[in-house]
Amino acid sequence: MNLLNYLYKNKKISIDSADLNLIKNYKFNSITSNPTLILKSFLNKTYNLLLNFFFYKNNKKILLDSDIQISLYDKILIFIVGNLIPFINDKISIEIPARISFNYNLIIIYSKKIIFLCNKYGININKVLIKIPGTDSGIKAAKKLKEIGIETNITLIFDINQVKKCLDFGVYIISPFIGRISDSIYCKYDSGVNFVKNIYTYKNNNNYKIKIMAASFRNINQIINLTFCDCLTISPIYFLELLKFNLKLLFKNKIKKTLKINFFNKYSSKLIIEGIKSFDKDHKKLINIISTIINNL
């Protein structure tokens, strides 16, 4: 058995993509999405026919983008989710706009808006997670959302302080970004992998129920070393490598010793801000593409 099939069998694999054709061809357990991934799918023309149908059916005079009111972008987002969700077994993460990552009230409002639209268009909200960056406002908002029955995926996790808050607040799942940690902090045994091993141990030792979804991989070895996680969300570029990897090799390899290291705010704050800026930049590009489409109808 290869490693990819093992991950499928144990329902641990999530796809970090919004490519409809790809998702139709593989039986993923879940999907994580963000403006960058949706933008890629728009640019490779995955949604051409669906978008034509969408714009034919929807009023193009409503607001293009909005934090509070229902906008055309919101409808497109939920339309895409509605087309993806039949092909997954578990949950899809729908990301809030990066620009509101530090605004507690707007995060709550936007999350409720997403759930309202899911209900309106017949999407099972039990299969939906609101994806929120792990800012202080975002994590506090996740606590409030849980109290009203809305589950979240807290992303851009780089710091043990973020993790502890998420654990205490009982959020559904957290997504530590392995690759970005490894890029920024040197550690003999891979700082990103080591960080996840440490928080997983902390979680289990304290009997927390939160799930850990390892994300943002830089190489196949990081995936191999984190197969114990509740879920792995991987980029399409690693599929062929996983298919080639013999599972027997995984069990022959001894797990390397972990090295405890502290992640200080000077690192995590920078990484969170960089991640938010990147998502916001691609969100704006996506809005510009939608605007161009509308103006040329």
UniProtKB/TrEMBL annotation:
Oxidoreductase in keyword set: no
Organism: Carsonella ruddii
Domain of life: Bacteria
Keyword Magnesium: no
Name the record gives this protein: Transaldolase
Keywords linked to the UniProt accession: Schiff base
Record GO biological process: carbohydrate metabolic process; pentose-phosphate shunt
Pfam families in the record: TAL_FSA
